[in-house]
Amino acid sequence: MMLALVGMLLLQMGAATRAIHDYNVYHPYTEIDSWMTGILIDNPDIVSIERYGQTYEKRDINLLRIGERTGAMKKVAWMDCGIHAREWISPAFCQYFIKQILQEYRVHGSRMAAMMKEMDFYVTPVLNVDGYIYSWLNGTRLWRKNRSPGTGSCSCYGTDLNRNFNVTWGTIGVSTNCCSETYGGTAALSSPEAASVTRYLEQRKADVLLFLTIHSYGQLILVPYGNPNLTAPNYGQLMKVGLAAAAEMKKVHGMSYRVGTSPDILYPNSGSSRDWARLAGIPYSFTFELRDNGTFGFELPEEQIQPACEEAYSGAMHIINHVHREQFNAAVSVATASLLGVLLATCVTVANNAF
Ligand SMILES: [Zn+2]
Q1: What's the gap in Å between 4 CA and the centre of ligand 1?
Q2: pLDDT in the model for residue 331
Q3: Which of 7, 38, 112, 266 has minimal Cβ neighbours within 10 Å of its Cβ?
Q4: Residue range 91-103, pLDDT digits in tens
């Protein structure tokens, strides 16, 4: 009894501490980690934390799985943040996104509440944990890659995780020099981080409707593929949905986001997680490059966290709603169509009988 009381008090104290999590500042990894635990404690009915891999320096890579536990296999919307260490607005967005979807879920009768019965969100707030922690040390704010050491005679650190996935690996927009910012690693999936994402999603890809990976900066929505010789079979649909998302984003604070493949609007590249996800069969795959256009670059001031997150949320939700509607309303339409068929057949029978 006493222990239960103490436990309750500790929970309440924890809740009080968590209540001050400030979404308008950047947080070091230890704070994001505690925040994840807090989200779990506050929402045990719909949130679980899943460890699905380890970084080079043996830190856990965790995602928050958010959705109603129906007992059925559910569809999945994936989001990862912080694959590039210095893009601090990205983990800030994942925190904001989780706060928002949980708030909306708690509104009785909301679309989010309905959606979470059919679809789970798998959100990794920081994928490149080692790199993110390193970017918080003195003088290394602009670190991008993971923290694996170079091999052979190369003494630099880090593989660019977004050049290390197994899709046209090592072919274009990638470096073989381990000191380069875009060093693709010794082989596809040579980094434990990219290997963890791949292994995890390979098992679930049939249920994953959407893969959304969050970067900065440049204000872009990128669709597959980074290699100009490849075109996604649903390129037209990806562009249509991406352009509509950008239009929604513009409505929020007037900011323009361009939409296209990486070679068309940024630069060609290979080995990205977005391209791997599309090639693996996940139908909708996008990269968001958040604010800004280069004024502050990776060091986006904290005053811009909230507006950047608000507009990105609007774009992400446009895509999520589209993907969800397409999956589940289509199923409803099929059911309605067969019901109509039965009714029509009945009418025809009645009509025949009448004559
Ligand atoms: Zn990036």
Answers
A1: 46
A2: 58
A3: 7
A4: 999 999 999 999 9
Q: Which of 87, 193, 289, 311 is catalytic?
A: 289
Domains of the chain: which residue ranges?
28-350
Residue 139 has what pLDDT? 97
Ligand 1 centroid–CA 12 distance in Å is: 38
Distance 287 CA to ligand 1 centre (A): 9
Whether residue 326 lies in the annotated active site: no
**Using one digit for the tens of pLDDT, what is the confidence trace for 237-256?**
999 999 999 999 999 999 99
List the structure tokens of 2.
């006493």
Helix/strand/coil for 14: helix
Dist. CA 172–CA 182, nearest whole Å:
11
pTM: 0.90
DSSP string, 112-141: HHHHHHHEEEEEES-S-HHHHHHHTSTT-T
Distance 111 CA to ligand 1 centre (A): 31
